[in-house]
Specification:
single chain; 2-enoyl-CoA Hydratase, Chain A, domain 1; eight-stranded mixed sheet; flat
Amino acid sequence: MNPTNEPPFQATKPPLPTPQAAAPVVPTRPAYEAAIEQVARAMLHERRIEQRWRIFFRLAWLGLVLAVVWAVFVARNHVSAASGPHTALIEVRGEIAADGEASAEGLVAALKSAFEDKGAQAVVLRINSPGGSPVQAGIINDEIRRLKVLHKKKVYAVVEEMCASGAYYIAVATDEIYVDKASLVGSIGVLMDGFGFVGAMEKLGVERRLLTAGANKGMLDPFSPQDAKQTAFAKAMIDQIHQQFIKVVKDGRGARLKETPETFSGLFWNGEEAMRQGLVDKIGSLDYVAREVIKAEEIIDYTPTENVAERLARRFGASIGHGAVKALRELSPLR
């Protein structure tokens, strides 16, 4: 019985959730595309860096070349102004050779500068050399004699340790030669040396295969037996050069030379004995000659020196030359 007339109790169901709109799905790129993009960006960055460095190095090389050219130009055109009367010094050191420190090119240029300087009262060659090329020595000898006549200046040679062979060839062009009593002077001769490997090759079972166009093209080949005719020809040639050397010595020393059978044999003597034989004049050092003979104690060095810029220029030129030769060889198979 329900006195309130209320409907009977019924269990109520919870309301169903209302469906919400689904979030939009953003499409994603595959992972490999992102990786490719990252690699491309890295490569582009590297390329930009490489380009910057390439530009930098090109500018650096250009600057270096300009600096070398400028330094060489300044060094070659620099003339040191002397404060007054002085003795001009030129060093003749080491082997006399076209590509050496004592080359005709360098020493002739120094001689011209010294003779043309009005402040230079005389020129002194300080010599410490075992000799070298007769051609280079002959060029220097001729230039000394020419400049002496042209400028009316005296030239003296001062020997330190050694003045032999080609160095003595140069010294006899001077007016007087001064030495230390223990200096080595002389060696008036000519030599042509080499080695022969024929016997060693026979023992080792090595055969020499030499093809020539011209009967004497392989003359004095160290791997072939000596040919009597070719040896006689070479001996006659150096004998002729020896006679040229002898004439230069006799012309330079004149009546002062006390010739003996050993004078032109290739022997050398100490300074004291060389003075007795008339090969040199007096005992004396550079300072002695400048002070007592020339009467100009101030000594100015005219010796040509290769600075750092010239050394770099020489190497730079050599590398260019090597590249050019290599390119030409690649163009032509004929060697």
